[in-house]
Specification:
about 140 residues, Glycoprotein, Type 4 Pilin, three-stranded antiparallel sheet
Length: about 140
């Protein structure tokens, strides 16, 4: 006995038409166009906040360095003195930062160091994304006082 079953479904292959795929792609492109600027602003703000947090850690390390060595590192020794002993630092008990990576800002450039600072004993700073003084948003300078 040969029984033939009919499922009620079309016998041709099912799938999306080219028009349906293009419509979905267009909708996704529109969503991406509206969402991307907001995401980029958020990313820029996050990098600036990360720089502030890293600077806070560097300032703490500088204070520990000063307690051990009787003062802050010289301009010549720079921030590297927090991870490697500078020449002549006989009381150095570091490293004061775990990794030298902590001396690189979120834009991939080394933090700046100035002693004496303009408004304090020292300053540690990042010039932001544009690597130029001043600016707003992600281009703003991030400075310790």
């Amino acid at each position: 006995m040969n029984v033939r079953r009919h499922s009620g479904q079309p016998t041709s292959q099912s799938g999306f038409t080219l028009i349906e795929v293009l419509i979905v792609t267009g909708i996704l492109a529109l969503l991406a166009a509206f969402a991307t600027p907001q995401v980029m602003r958020y990313l820029g703000h996050a990098r600036t906040e990360a720089a502030r947090i890293q600077l806070s850690a560097i300032v703490t390390a500088m204070e520990l360095y000063a307690l051990d060595n009787g003062g802050y590192p010289s301009q010549q020794a720079g921030l590297a003195a927090l991870v490697r002993p500078p020449s002549g630092a006989t009381k150095w008990r570091g490293p004061y930062l775990k990794k030298a990576d902590g001396l690189i800002d979120p834009w991939g450039r080394p933090y700046g160091y100035r002693i004496p600072g303009r408004q304090s004993a020292f300053e540690v700073f990042s010039l932001g994304r544009d690597s130029a003084t001043g600016g707003t948003g992600e281009d703003q300078d991030v400075v310790t006082w």
